[in-house]
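Entry 14. Structure prediction run on the chain below.
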Amino acid sequence: MINFILMKKQELGLFIAKRRKALRVNQKELARLCGVSEHALCNLERGIGNPTLNIVNAVADALGLELKLGVKVLEAP
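Output returned:
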């Protein structure tokens, strides 16, 4: 099991889309379950825009995921 993944917006969007598809849920259904607009969900999956933390958390929760924060390890220049 992966404890945490560091990812950019596009990677997060792809991860969410893959999880949604694995659960056989379409965007319209997921948006309804999360209480977000289809447009917001589509943008999140495409890695565009600036979704609120509430939207990301609602989508993650509906997909059986959780958000975690960790200390970022910086590489030496």
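Residues 9-62 form a domain with the 434 Repressor (Amino-terminal Domain) fold (CATH 1.10.260.40).
Filed with the rest of this week's runs.
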